[in-house]
Amino acid sequence: MNATQLKAALKKVRADISKQHAVRLHRAISWLKCAEDSKDLDIQFIGLWISFNACYAINVLKEEQLRERESFGEFVHKLVKHDNEKRFSHLLWNQFSGPVRLLIENKYVYKPFWDFQRGEIKDWKKPFDKSVVDSMKFLSTQNVAGLLEVVLDRLYTLRNQLMHGGATFKSDINRSQVKDGNNMLKLLIPLVIEIMLTNQQEDWGEIYYPVIE
How many other CB atoms are there within 10 angstroms of residue 30's CB atom? Predict the structure, then answer.
């Protein structure tokens, strides 16, 4: 489904879902539409990630913010649990198996690699190699939640590079990962929104920055 179709689907059920959930999905769909309307890869990727961020960001206490990665994993497991048609599996194993492997093996979208460059950690290579091995096990055993979490974590690092000014607009250096990331997110994000739209009974958490009347 594209943004226009998702907007129409949301309109049909809006009266039956909570206001918070409707706002969350409305925001996500609006940024998905932004990405669909743009012809630039960088802007598409940023729009797609903001759309995804609108889906998973929840309002937590300040002292709980360090649990973001854990909350992120919980969100992924909720999505996979409700993916009765195994569409995540189809995308990761059939449609994007090549780009997924390239993403997993790309050190430039592995957060500890950059932590090492900043002198924050002493070694990135051993944990990176372990991450690659673990990810390949996820591939071979069709561990959907595990593999999806790794893919999104790598894309999150790419997102940080773009959003925090760590990359040049239309740079040739990171074109391949931006292009592959776009192609994956263009199909993953609508699926995420659709699952959340049709599973309103799930506790998706309180939205970050609620609408204040």
Answer: 15
Query: At 41, which helix (H) or strand (E)?
Result: helix 41-56
Does this model's pTM top 0.70?
yes
CA 181-54-21 angle, to 5 degrees, is 135
In the three-class reduction of DSSP (H, G, I as helix; E, B as strand; rest coil), residue 138 is classed as: helix
Decide if 35 contacts 51 (C-beta within 8 A): yes
- DSSP 3-state assignment of 188? helix
Q: Where are the domains of the chain?
A: 3-198
Interatomic CA distance for residues 184 and 172, integer angstroms: 19
The pLDDT tens digits of the residues spanning 58-77 come to: 755 444 544 556 677 889 99
Q: How far apart are CA 109 and CA 180, in angstroms?
A: 12
